Amino acid sequence: MKYHSTNGIVGNINLDEAVIKGLAADKGLFMPENIKQLPDEFFERIDKMSLDEVAYRVADALFGEDITASDLKKIVSETLSFNIPLVCVKENIFALELFHGPTLAFKDVGARFMARMLRHFIKGRGSRVNVLVATSGDTGSAVANGFLNVEGVHVYILYPKGKVSDIQEKQFTTLGHNITALEIDGCFDDCQALVKSAFMDEELTSKMFLTSANSINLARLLPQSFYYFWAYAQLKSMGLERELVVSVPCGNFGNLTAALFAKRMGLPIKRFIAANNSNDVVYNYLQTGKYNPRPSVATIANAMDVGSPSNFARIMTLYNADHASVCADITGAAYNDNQIAEAIEKAYKETGYLLDPHGACAYLATNEGLGEGETGVFLETAHPAKFKETIESILQQEIQIPDALQKFISGNKQTVELSGSFKEFKEYLLKEVLHEGSEIYY
Ligand SMILES: *Cc1c(COP(=O)(O)O)cnc(C)c1O
After folding, report:
1. Is 66 inside any structural domain?
2. Which of 126, 195, 373, 436 has its CA at 20 to 30 Å from residue 326's CA atom?
3. pLDDT exceeds cutoff 50 at 165
4. 230 and 252, same domain (yes or no)
5. What is the CATH number of the domain that holds 263?
6. What residues are in contact with ligand 1 under a 6 Å CB criterion?
7. Does pLDDT of 441 surpass 50?
8. How far is the centre of ligand 1, averaged over its atoms, from the C-alpha of 360 (Å)?
């Protein structure tokens, strides 16, 4: 398969280059030249298949031209070592729980898949790949855990000292092995600036192989389409797969873009709801046809606090920027913090189901937006315990921390403290090159 950029200048790129580079040279995002349909036979049998089998068939349609069946099967099964249950919340509304991975958030699947695909593509290159990631919290933990112990790759997580929650910090500072946490004396933007400067520094890039692992990378984005096929498979086994509406809590719109790919591959989903918090630029686009990105505002669903969603360009490419066609597949919804808090409280009282603030936006949208005879699935993207203080203040009661989170909390924090000056960061990285030899090479 060949890939081209959403900016239309760069084209004819192979999958390995698209994954290793992440971003096209014209600063656009990579898109595959075509999207393969899955055959009827697959959809007829999907309810009899395991998660691994479903995901492999989808991965094969996406990546099968460029990776052998046995390698791709291994990448898929190593990625999906946990469950993705579909839970009935009430009547015709189901939660697809995407938070049973190592960091209890849905980014685990994309991060784990990307780590393994990168490992596959760098085999034989003879040098270590160094992944630099700046994080304000959740991305760092998913990437660190996704890349943990992946041979040939070392991850440096840059985070602002004192500005991430204790649980988040523990999730990427206690791992050791090939994960190094750099505690930067500065804010998130300072961390991001250091990463950008490193990529542009000729001496560094000539001496060490650097790449990023942010959500614009196709290898992180596309595996998220597994979720939608899996939701459909589970509903089909209950005879409820017709008139299916799927509601997605959106930030950078990667998850929804993967959903749109699933539909193009033939998955019979009637429509999608893009659920936003107060950062509602795409909601406004759906209502008016006008797209006006603006700075983000802070909300209690903070992983969705994005004012200029990076994957919007991919959605425009998929629909040739035609507003009417976009609206035929996607409707929008947006909720402020009060509405989110009220939904968490009400759902818990009425159904016993504990929503997290992100899933709550998607739940509200299905609750309000379903028509006669439709079945709604909303994505629960994080475990509520990751937002313990917020949830406890809404419900006025204590909530349980699952063992998987507890395990991180009791780990030992190990970081390298840096000042935020690029000179110091560069010297640190250059010293790291000298130690590369003691780690595993391909
Ligand atoms: C990242 C994230 C989102 C938003 O996903 P996008 O793919 O960026 O739209 C929603 N919920 C949680 C918990 C997240 O971490």
Report:
1. no
2. 373
3. yes
4. yes
5. 3.40.50.1100
6. 105, 107, 138, 215, 249-255, 303-304, 358, 381-382
7. no
8. 12
Say whether pLDDT at 325 is over 90: yes
Spacing, Cα 403 to ligand 1 middle (Å): 23
Residue 197 has pLDDT above 60, yes or no: yes
Residue 131: phi and psi, rounded to 5, are -95, 125
pLDDT in tens, 21-65: 888 888 899 999 999 999 999 999 999 999 999 999 999 999 999
Model's pTM, two decimal places?
0.93
**Do 311 and 352 reside in the same domain of the chain?**
yes
Q: How close is the Cα of 421 to the center of ligand 1, in Å?
A: 30
Residue 41 lies in a domain: no
Give the number of domains in the chain: 2
Q: Which of 222, 358, 383, 391 to mutate to test the pocket of ligand 1 (most atoms within 8 A of CB)?
A: 358
Same domain, 231 and 151: no
Residues 258, 371, single domain; the answer is yes
Alpha helices, DSSP H, located in 223-330: 226-237, 254-264, 281-288, 312-318, 323-329
Same domain? For 202 and 237 the reply is no
Taking alpha carbons only, the member of 384, 390, 392 closest to residue 353 is: 384
User: Do 372 and 242 sit in the same domain of this protein?
Assistant: yes
CA of 304 to the centre of ligand 1 (A): 6
SS (H, E, C) 353-412: CCCCHHHHHHHHHHHHHCCCCCEEEEEECECHHHHHHHHHHHHCCCCCCCHHHHHHHCCC
Range(s) of the domain holding residue 240: 83-104+221-395
H/E segment holding residue 52: helix 51-63
- pLDDT at residue 415 tops 50: yes
Domain match, 346 and 236 both = yes
pLDDT tens digits, 231-289: 999 999 999 999 999 999 999 999 999 999 999 999 999 999 999 999 999 999 999 99
Residues 227 and 328 in one domain: yes
User: What is the total residue count of the chain?
Assistant: 442
- Our mutation pick for probing the ligand 1 site, out of 304, 305, 314, 386, counting the most ligand atoms within 8 A of Cβ, is 304
